Amino acid sequence: MKHAVFGAMIAGAVGFATTAGAVTEIQWWHAMGGTNGERVNKIAEDFNATQSDYKVVPVYKGNYTETMTAAIAAFRAKEQPTIVQVFEVGTATMMAAKGAVYPVEDLMADTGTPFDKAGYLPAVISYYQTPEGKLLSMPFNSSTPVLWYNKDALDAAGAKVPTTWDEVKEASEKLVANGMDCGFSFGWQSWVMLENYSAWHDLPFATKENGFAGFDAELVFNNDAVVNRLQQIADWQGAKLFKYGGRRGDSLPMFTNGECGMWLNSSAYYGSIKGQAKFNFGQTMLPVDTAVRDKPQNSIIGGATLWVLSGKSDEQYKGAAKFLAYLSTPEVQAWWHQETGYVPITTAAYELSRSQGFYEKNPGTDTAIKQLSLNTPTPNSKGIRLGNFVQIRDVINEELEALWAGDKTAKEAMDSAVERGNVLLRKFERTVAR
Amino acid sequence: MLKRVHYSPSLLPYLLVAPQVAITLVFFIWPASQALYQSFLIEDAFGLSTEFVWFENFIALFKDPIYVETFWRTAYFSLAVAGLSMGLALVLAAFADRVVRGATFYRTLLIWPYAIAPVLAGALWVFMFNPTLGIVAYALDALGIEWNHKLNGSQAMLLVIMAAAWKQVAYNFLFFLAAMQSIPKSVIEAAAIDGAGPVKRFWTIIFPLITPTTFFLLVVNMVYAFFDTFGIIHAVTQGGPANATTILVYKVYNDGFVGLDLGSSAAQSVILMAIVIALTVVQFRFIEKRVEY
Which candidate, A239, A255, A391, B201, has a CA 20 to 30 Å from the CA of B31? Predict the structure, then answer.
C-alpha cells in the first residue's frame, strides 16, 4: 500500500515534469474583472488553442492599482509574472524602472517576431513610447472620455445633443425643467475634466510636454481656462445642472437609472451602459469651451497596456512575443473593440470593424477613435507622463471634492492641487535621478 | 534566614517559551524591524535605486499639514467609535442582563454582527446608504435630508463611524454582559431591599463593579479603531471624499500600496506603532490606577 502511494507520487511528479517541459506557461496578470475578465480568458484560451508550445495563464489580480502593486511586490520577491497589465497612470513609474521592464519593441526584435509599428494608431502608441520613439509596452485596452447622453430624456425635454459647454448648460437646464434630478455628471474626474479638458483645448497640463520631455516637469493646470470651467460647474450645482457622484465610475448608476441625463466618462462603459440602461442612449464628442478655443484638438487615451517584465527565460519571452503578436491581429482587436467599447489599437482592426458594418449598426461607437485621431497630437495632447501620478490623481480628486462640497473655490483647489502635486513630482524625480 | 532555593539548570523552560518567542520574532520583531529600516529609505517602487536618508521621511511627514490633520481625525474617529460602540453595548447589556426568558436567543442575535468580516460589514452599509440606490438614503431623502457621503465629508465620517461601531457592539456586549452576570446577585438584591431603583443600582453598584471590563474594552476598542477599521473604510469611502475619512492606518496603505511611496508609508507605520504602544502604556499606567478590581 505504502509503495503504491509512493509510486503514484513519483509517477505524478514525472508526469508533471514532462508536461512542464513540453508547454511553457506564461503568467499574465491583469485587472479585468467581470465580463471583461471572461473576455480576457477567452483571448488566452483562443491563443492557447492556436499552438501547443506555450500556455498563457491569465490571472485576475484586482483593480489596476492592486495589479500593479502586486506585480511590483512580486518583482521585489523575484516571483514576477511575464506579462502584466498596467494602467496608463503607471507608465512613468514603469518607464523609470529600467532594469525591471523588457521594452516590447526590443522583445519583438530579439525574438524575431514580425512587428509593424506603423500599423498602430498614433494617438494610442505615442502615450507609451520613449522620447526616442521606442515602444515600451503593448497597448491592450485603450479608451477615451466621451459625452454619453440619454437620448429619450433629451428628446422629451426638447434639448439637442450638446457640442459646447454652453449647450451642455442649456440642455441641462431643459432636462431639469422637465423633471430630471440632474443635468449631467462625470467620473474619473482628473482624467476627464483636467487631463482631457487640457488636451482637448490644447492647453498644457504640465511643463516639459506634459512630462514627456523630462522628469523635471511641473504641473500648470491651475490656469484660467480650467479654473473658470470648474468654478462654473461647481456653481451649477445649486440649480441641479451638475451632480457629483464619486470617483472612477461610481456615478454610472446616476446615468443608467435616469437620474442624470448626460455623463462624461470613458467610451469603455459602452458594454455596461448597454447592459443597464433601459432607454436609448448615444455618445458624442466631448463639449468644447468656446471661450477657450473654437475647435477641439484631440483627446487622450486612458486604459492599460501590457508590460513584459525582465528576469524570465528566453522560452518565456518567445511565447510572450507570440502572444502579443496574436493579440494585435485585426480579428482579435476588432472583436475586443466591438465587445467592450475600447478603441481598436491598430488601423487594420478599425478597418475590419468598419467593413463588418459595426459602426453603421451601432451609431456613435466610433466617437472615441474619431476624437483621438481628430488632429495630429501636439505636445499638449500626446498624453501625460508624470511620476507618482497615481498619488497626484488622488490629490486632484481630493481637491476637486473640496470644490464640489463648497469648501474651496476652483482657484484655491487647483492652486493647492498644483502645489501638492509638484511636491510629489520632485520626490519622484529624486528616486529616478540616480 | 530564608533558604534560597536552587533549581538545576534545565532546558525545559526555554523550550516551553521558544514557540512564543519564535512567533513574536517571525511575526512581529522581524517585520517591524524591516519597516523601521524601510522608513529611513527613499526608494523607487521596484527597489532598483535606494537612498538612505535617515529621518527625512519623518520630517517630511510632520511638515505636511495633511498628515497632521490625519492625526486629529484619527483621534476623533477612534474616540467616537469606542464611545458609540461601548455606550450602545452597555445599554444593551444592561437590558439583556434583566431578561429572564429567551435570554440565549437575544444574546445570539446581538452577537451575530461580530461574525461578519469588516469588508462585508462595510459593503452592507454602502448598499444601505448609496446616494442613488440605497434604501436609507432614499428614506432620508423623503425626510428632506440630502444624503451624499461621496461629497459630504461629515456624512462620510458619520457613516464609517456607524459602520465601525456597529460591528464592534457585539463584542463589547458579550464582555459587558459576562461582567454583569458575574456580579453576585446578593449585592444587587441587598441594594434593592434598601430601596435603590434599577437606575441607581446600575450607577452605584453595577457600573463600578464592571470597570475592569470597561477598561479592558477601552484598550481593545481603541486598538480596533486604529487598525481593524481599515476594511470598513476601504469598502465604504476609501478615505474620501477629500480625505475626510482617511485615518492613519488608511494613509499608510494608500501611500504605500497605491502611491508606491514605501519610505513614507513605512515611516507612518513606525509612528503608528509608537502611538499604539504609548497609548497602551498610558492606559495601563495611569487609568488602571483608578480602576476598582
Answer: A391
Dihedral of CA A88/A94/A96/A102: which sign? negative
Model pLDDT, residue B113: 81
Amino acid at B155: Q
- Residue numbers in A near B260 (CB within 8 A): 68-69, 72, 93, 388, 390
For residue B264, what are the contacts with CB-CB under 8 A and spacing of at least 6? Answer: B57, B60, B61, B255, B256
pLDDT for the residue A49: 94
Which residues of chain B from 27 to 46 reach within 8 Å of chain A, CB to CB?
A: 42-46
Q: How far is B247 from chain A (nearest CA, A)?
A: 15
C-alpha angle B159-B164-B168 in degrees, rounded to nearest 5: 145
Q: From the CA of B43, how many Å to the nearest CA of chain A? A: 6
Instruction: Assess A257–B contact: CB distance below 8 Å, yes or no.
Output: yes
DSSP designation for B165 = H
| A28-46 pLDDT per residue, tens | 999 998 888 999 999 999 9
Residue B260 sits at the chain A interface (C-beta within 8 Å) = yes
Fold assignment, B51-290: MetI-like fold (1.10.3720)
Parts of chain A belonging to CATH 3.40.190.10: 2-143+302-361, 145-299+387-433
Cα-to-chain-centroid distance, residue B27? 20
